[in-house]
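Annex B, item 7. Sequence and structure tokens for protein A, then protein B.
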Amino acid sequence: MNWSISFEPLVSWPLFGLLFVPLLLLALVGLWFRQRGSALRFVALLALAAALLNPVFLAEEREALKSVVALIVDRSQSQDIGDRAKQTDEALAGMQERLARFKQFDVRVVEAGKSEAADDRTETRLFSALEGAFRDVPPSRIGGAVMITDGEVHDAPAGAPEFSAPLHALITGNEHEKDRRIRFENAPRFGLVGKPLDMTYRVISTEGDGAPVDVRVSVNGEQVSVEHATVGQPMKLSVTIPNAGRNIVQLGIDREPGELTDANNRAIALVDGIRENLRVLLVSGEPHAGERTWRNLLKSDASVDLVHFTILRPPEKQDGTPINELSLIAFPTRELFVEKIKDFDLIIFDRYQHRDVLPILYYDYISEYVEKGGALLIAAGPEYAGENSIARTPLNAALPAMPTGEVVDKAFYPRLTDLGQRHPVTRGLDGSASEPPHWSRWFRTIGVKNPEGEVVMKGADDRPLLLLDRKGEGRVGMLLSDQGWLWARGFEGGGPHVQLYRRIAHWLMKEPELEEERLTADGRGMMLEIRRQTMSDDPGPAQVITPSGKAVTVKLEKAEPGIFTGSLQTGEIGLYQIGNGDLTALAHVGPINAPEFSDVISTEDRLKAPAEATGGSVRRLAPSSALGNLAGGVTLPSIVPVRSSAAASGDDWIGLRTTDDSTLKAVSRVPLFGGFLGLGLLLLAIGSMWYREGR
């Protein structure tokens, strides 16, 4: 209960001063000159002033407010190391029990470091959590904060935090922890496929520098070498990037006896493989309407170096023109098909027929080129069904279908087969979803028999139109019509010739994205997304191995023909191994080499400056002395409520500030000059003055 006196004047203050200041001066003059009755006049004047000022006696009933204390609990992944999680739980329970004894504290428990967002898991941000806990609290009501953490806090200020209350830190873990870690010093984001890429790394140990250590180097999950490194020294590394697109380079070292954790014994670098320009040899057997369609398409691709020859003067054409008067160049057959054939990523025969331009032996070289990993595309026209067909040469060993000798001149819409709807070369072609397809007709199909490989498009009378086949280590494609140029010219609205031709060429050159059977995975936030590309109807579930070694099964659902997808909400940052059938993939969830795992040794250093700046303290939870109270294997300090100016920590205790703030619940008012009491006093004073003046 609080008591006070308040004035509630009956007239305004300016009017009160205007009336009473002159009267007061006159009364004071009378007192100065000792005039008779001046004392009574002065008392009467004071009584009248008191009546007009209306003094009121107030009795307030107030309720004291509680100080807000934040208990910040570190739940980041580094807290799962060793017995830190157990220490944290025991310390949290013990501190809550101690704080519950003090009614003047409002305790707010905030757990930080286990958000679903990947960015919140890469760093331990306890001060951001602390700011959120005090966001709606006036500064005068902040009693202090207690952090339970391993000390690896990444947003700790260099000085005092933005509140004037004690900050205390209770450190999990143990003194003299031992750990060794590896990290990339320099890791380029891009590299040329098939070319060495220079990188640097470093092995760091709490045991000091100079010791030798073996480092395992893996690319896309396959170990490629074992390097010998010196602890503490920057080491050079050269790796060859095997694939276009995403590549994962991983470094690993063995766990030492007594080492705190092996979670940071691995380092990851993501390298995007870029192909050098692909070399394509295009041989057109004769000038025709579709010749420039292939040429324009390949020339427009910046990643393709095109060598194009058109046979304008076959050997049998003898018209008597002297050689020195011809503007044509001789076809460099030996240079292209013997000396430099291995330099080409793709050979295209566009309406080519055997007319002794190529020696018969060279077809054997081309077949051998395909068997050893080369790519061959036959864009067939009527000549493929004739007597000079290249199917009648030794090249037939590499061809997926033999001609029947029939050329079907009949209008038709090119359509996808059932396999074609799932095959990555033809799946989802623009216009293929409607019936008839939303593209123009073609008018010629070359008949073949006993097709091998996969028929992904069909022509007139459901005859094979596009064949894709594997021969040894290489690939062969056969387009059994020379009418694709109708799409390029916009006939009847045209069609997706660029999309189709480019996919065919890139599939032949083994572009990973166009593989029929492919398993990929990627981390988006804390979500692992899996994508399975297949020609089967059901690839089955995917098996996932988490960074901690836990096995998880993920069901794959059909997203579209030939595509199955699945996702897994993860709780760990690191490298995940995904398997489905014979296929495997790697994916990294969360930022690469996050600070949360770069240094996992528990420390008091990072929180010492902000704690000392507020008068708080930093101490370890692991028992190391007889001071304090033991609770479940951890040493907890006693809690002492302190005033704002008092010390806030001692050897075995921590102080939390109490507040003087309160809320008003009720007020009792008693007017001192109100009612008959005020009237009586006023009349008594005036009557006494009148009586004295009357004498």
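Protein B:
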Amino acid sequence: MSSDMPPAAKRVPAERTHHGDTVIDEYAWLIKKDDPDTVAYLEAENAYTNEATAHLKPLQDSIFQEIKGRTLETDLSVPTRKGAWWYYSRTEEGKQYGIQCRVAADGDDPPVLTPGEPLPGEQILLDGNELAGDSPFFAIGTSSVSPDGTMLAYSTDFSGDERFTLRFKSLSTGEVLGDEIPGIFYGGAWAGDGSAFFYTMVDEAWRPNRVFRHTLGSADPDPVVFQEDDERFWIGIGLSRSERFLVLGAHSKITSEVRVLDANNPLGEFTVIRPRETGVEYHVDHQNDRFLVLHNQGAANFELASAPVDDPAVWTAVIPHREDTRLLDVDAFQSHLVVHFRRDGLTGLRILPEGAEPYEIEFPEPLYDVAPSGNSEFVTSRLRLGYTSMVTPPSVYDFDLPSHTLILLKRRPVLGGYDPADYEQFREWATAEDGTKIPISLVIRKGTPRPAPTLLYGYGSYENSIDPYFSVARLSLLDRGFAFAVAHVRGGGEMGRHWYEDGKLNRKKNTFTDFVAVARHLKGEWSGPIIARGGSAGGLLMGAVANLAPEEFTAIVAEVPFVDALNTILDPSLPLTVIEWDEWGDPLHNADVYAYMKSYSPYENVRDGVYPPILAITSFNDTRVFYHEPAKWIARLRAVARGGPFLLKTEMGAGHGGRSGRYDAWHEEAFTLSWILDRVGVAQ
């Protein structure tokens, strides 16, 4: 194949008609995953991309070595207390995957660990490297120790399709039991007495819809304890921190229903906290004689309520609704509550001690992200939390409740002389077309000349927030004169529930116009050339802005991009489609939704115009955004648009998250960053 001639799609087009609109899809044949011609086409695309980027190999290798050189490859997590043990994970130089371990507890302070030196009495629970063997892909879906600490339930995936095989290991003998259950979903929960494990399975649309109970040692078929027949809902199950209740949640994008079961009576029946009511979302935790219920009934930004265990449908406000504060989650402990919230675009923590005044934990930086993390014990006077910013590496603290003191336990090491003082982070505000102020988070190395080339990241769906975060790989851009910015566009949750509502359904285009407004705001004082980047639903954003304002971007990176949105949401047989109708609308049955989605869906709107260079990265086994979406999009760009080049790179043995091993992931990121740098002429 000539290096200047990409592969061409040569199949019979498909025709579809909806609401009187007939559309020809020239590349629909690419959906046939098992067709050898499809595989050959993707492999030819990979060969073309490899040729087109061969000159970047030295830069890619340099960036990989920088990422590797800044990473403490032999490292450990901070131990977390659960019962009679401290649990932690560690990594070893040269190995792709982590190793899960524990040591017996002695006192309340976590043991001091030295990288590369296992603690005396260390017990290895799971070694991901041994489990992975020679498989090119490996992932763990669940790893859960029974309440008494004697058994481990774990599940593994060797293809990236997110279907896991569940196994059980005796932590007393190290023996893996004969019980083996294929095809399960993420997560699961132990019964309180450790006699049974509850797990979920998906239907043909990849929707977790059934909960099963497995009794250890039983050869009988596992009974279904709950089945959700409404295609808009998915389910999950967990054990409350108090270990008193199994909590089974059924959720759609806009509605919730929660059931509970005495954890020590695994053969019993689940009971409903409050029956589902369209538009009412709620989550439940347990504390002593009450449930804590976080809900949005008459409270757009959510309210915290309590409910008696013996009458859980009666809710009494604990923290009333506030227009300026979005309540995200509640963690219940024996003598206090911790509420995770969002205000002014930043996250925070509010402590509600029993018998004392509530208060919030203060943090010094102008931009940061904080959340509870690793709090397994119900009876404790300490709160474990994770903290990071755009210049501060991920940090683990214990907050001592009696003294109101933050105790730094660990900050992720960044080797090679990294100093946070060498970098600056800023908050900017762009003005959208309708006058709305859009927050922007920025980081740049001090002394970098401005305007600087800028990598602008965006997502903007599902109320997911892209909070300020640290990245070792990003330093390879910043140290070469780049700025990095996050556009906190509507459709995410950064500014509260209304921020999400203003970027979904028939207001989805706000997500795209917000991103363009941010790019225009940055140009001049802040930014020279702007490279846009986004993944999954953020890949939809990339495709939309490429059509909307291609002149604003020097290049675009779209990772596992949801760019064939209309065709996917029209097909209820595809995984997750019906669930997604509450997010995007139902174009199959509603002509107005069809017309609106067709007006912005990236694949539908490629036009004869000059587009910037585009790199689309996808995975062959992705079960969330199929590989054929970016494959079709790149093919249509080549056929219709001008400019480019338009490149497609498919990981043939990976899923939605890309390659699984850490070194493989570093190589992948180094490839992407080298392509970004090349777009602005940086060659080393």
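Comment on protein B: Residues 1-5 have pLDDT under 50 and may be disordered.
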